[in-house]
Design a protein that fits this description.
With about 200 residues, the chain is an all-alpha fold. The chain is built from nine helices and no strands.
């Protein structure tokens, strides 16, 4: 019985690794040359897999784009979850938290992998089949933002979360287009969160 279970696990692990290689290749290609550059042949070459493997794991390009988008956000939200845990565990102050967020969101050089999500979100504007995945991604960011803001004692954290996420994305896009420094994101986050704390304290 055990002799048959080991190969099955090995096969599953190999299949998962192949699938991951394909997703990583898709993100690199999109980041380098945009969604229009995606072809199964190029994906297979970039991923180092057979052409048949691409179509076996992903029946349509929509499936490829959806999983690539969700995978990227899954990785990013894990990083932000660690940040949120650190904020809560260390009782970090507002300015320190803003700098940490900037380090995670804006401190990494914009390589192809980090440019790709912007391409995918724009593609979701053209392809309504991707919008559910995009909405799922932003909902994950909103939950994490609310968690961080709550940990920092910001009033109305749930209400402010989507605004904070929009600010981070806007600053990232500006940085991508202009090369502006990550410090700009720190200043913008501090302005938002301090303003939220003050307005939240006013009588209704």
């Amino acid at each position: 019985m055990s002799s048959t279970s080991v190969p099955a696990q090995t096969g599953a692990a190999k299949s998962s690794a192949t699938r991951q290689s394909i997703v990583d290749a898709v993100l690199r290609i999109i980041g380098d040359d945009g969604v229009a550059a995606l072809t199964n042949r190029r994906i297979a070459k970039e991923a180092g897999v057979s052409l048949g493997s691409v179509t076996y794991h992903f029946a349509t390009q929509h499936d490829l784009l959806r999983e690539s988008l969700l995978h990227f956000v899954s990785v990013e939200t894990r990083r932000f979850t660690e940040l949120a845990d650190q904020c809560r565990g260390e009782g970090i102050e507002l300015e320190g938290a803003a700098r940490m967020v900037a380090q995670v969101a804006g401190g990494t050089a914009f390589d192809a992998r980090h440019i790709a999500p912007f391409e995918l979100y724009v593609q979701a504007g053209r392809d309504e089949r991707l919008r559910a995945a995009a909405a799922e991604c932003f909902a994950a960011y909103d939950r994490l933002a609310a968690r961080i803001l709550t940990g920092l004692g910001v009033r109305d954290a749930e209400r402010m979360a989507s605004t904070a996420v929009a600010l981070v994305f806007g600053q990232q896009l500006r940085r991508l287009a202009t090369g502006s420094p990550a410090e700009d994101l720190v200043d913008a986050l501090l302005l938002l969160t301090r303003g939220a704390s003050v307005s939240g304290g006013r009588p209704a």
